[in-house]
Protein 1
Amino acid sequence: MAATKKARKTKSASARAALAKNMVLLRRARGYSQEALAFEAGLHRTFIAHCERQARNIALDNLERIASALGVEPYVLLLPDDEETSVRHFA
């Protein structure tokens, strides 16, 4: 049982880290500044910056707003960084 818990922790990064990395990658791929993404999502620029720095928890409503502004489904923002499920396929 302990080995299973340890394997889960080392297998993937946190959801917050995946979100931050994917937000930055998709934002840059679309040529958006943090301010432009915030405007498109109806959020404040500092909120986007905090999410990208992993300094903020994010509500599902805001996750949906950011995903919509980036033109992807919300789950895409939480994909881990591996070859099979990389967000790079959506960039």
Protein 2
Amino acid sequence: MPNEIKIIATKLASEFEPKEPEFLWFPYLPRKTLTVIQGDSGYGKSSFILNIAARLSNGEHMPFVQSSEPAEMGNTLYFIDEDDKESMVVPRLINIGADRSKIAFINEVYRLTSDCSALEDTIRKLNSRLVIIDPITQYLDSKFNMNIAQGVGSVMRELSRVAAQTDSTIVCIVHLTKNASGKEIDRHLGSSDISNAARSVLYVSRDNEDSDISKVKQLKCSLSKRGEPFYYEIVGNGMVEFVEETETVDDLPHKEPTKQEKAKLKLLELLSNGAAVSREEIEKATQLICSWSTVEDAKTELGNIESRRGKGGIYYWQMKS
């Protein structure tokens, strides 16, 4: 009896309709897939992506985007260490004016495996447009050795599937190894399958270790031409100023901030951690910086400071809760 012929199912390329890739932030953060942000500790990777989440929460355009069309407003799901939420992340979200009702934290022990169906269901329920895993190595199930491609690869492929099924952008934060040799894209901790699974890889570095300015270079972009490098500077508790490479970055640290910018930074300093400060105290703290009208303009521009009347008719300013 002749052997039965078995044919693998096929489909002609002509039977598929081409689809244009979509981006949360072109070309750095594509939708329906993974983005890896890698860099040394202390370079502000968390502050960088937190500012992106804040813009998304308020329906603000992404950095360098100039458009008359309304910006997307959406929710973020954030994997972050439990001890960091109240002491670090929430104060930063307040300072940068994020809509905290649109940013949710994972609030139980959850580990990433080759089956992330619970994560998929959570993203759907919250309608999260952005998912941040910071850092991904902390959330891998202990049975997966991050240095072995077979294990990590299955997790990354599952995350890719979840991103595609939920129309979300999943961002994985990864630290670098101490070994500076080899290609930039392979310098992260763990298997190369981490960056291989991503459609975009952003590399955060610093030209000067004594500087607060970080450079972001897109090492990989599978869905379009790679974006131009850009810079960001942490100018307050979580606040980030984005700078295009076309600007003179060497001059940025010496650029004298405007009086209103100084007033904004002073207000953020005075009102950090939810402190209520009297108008009189604020006037004393800012009188050598600028006029009171400039302070009021700075308050309005920040948009997250409220004024209330206390005992004795004294007015206090405080960050909105």
Protein 3
Amino acid sequence: MESSGGTNAETGDGRTGPTEPTNAEPGSEADPGLASRLRYLVTLSRPRFWFYLAGPVVVGVAFAAESVPELFGPVGLALFAYFLLPANVLLYGVNDVYDAEIDAENPKKEAGGREARFSGERWVVAVVVASGLVGLGTFALVPVGAWPWLGAFFVLAVEYSAPPLRFKTTPLLDSVSNGLYILPGVVAYVAVAGRQPPAAAVVGGWLWAMGMHTFSAIPDIEPDREAGIRTTATVLGEERTYAYCGAAWLSAAVAWAFVDNRIALLMLAYPVVVFAIYWSNVDVDEAYWWYPAINTVVGMLLTMGALTRIVPPASLLEALR
């Protein structure tokens, strides 16, 4: 759940759009070859964040399933496969295309870094578009009740970075729109259970995502301010952004308490960690990279807890004897 501020290249008539693409031919110096292209796409898709979209699918299926076979149904597996890689290529690809200008100054995009820097290659745009078109096929896999959630994901995934809405440059909306990260889980839940999830679970998940996004924006405060980009984090400043994240995560825990007190207690780990970071000497640029691991552990605990409804721990222990 990465935040990266940015501006668009301006066209001759004043409209904004992605940076002008290059016209590299296969085999030229500007075209590095298939292996390098694949490595670039993997980097572009942010592997550390893959489970930010695919993880909620696992959690959604685990809470929706009522039998072991439902855990491994074809629809759930197809959704997991799409949200593991193609959806990340779409989400971060759109981000990189429309943030090319500001990313030229973003330290996270330096050569050899953890993120890719888009330089206008047309083949990258083609792959990003193809990832979106493949995603549209998922509508045929899920019931009509999941369509609004799936549609909301694609709208938010694109319009977070792309004009005309470009939520990422509007304070508060940049944070609120990042509820998109829980939508794959909602879609999976509806697809498997055949009913809508508890409203409090959606609210709790959305608030969690808001906190995650805004925390990830803290390292970008200075680059965004230099570029004239207004976000929730640039408006609040670093200290108040910590408070905002803590408040979002505390509110998420309260919402989850209406679903399950054990989940609410688990969610309290987030405000505890963010306040510990604030009161310590830990560099936020380093702490930023802790959260994929923290989210993986939390997601694993949520999934294991959900699975106990299907396979009681006593039965599992008996089977292992």
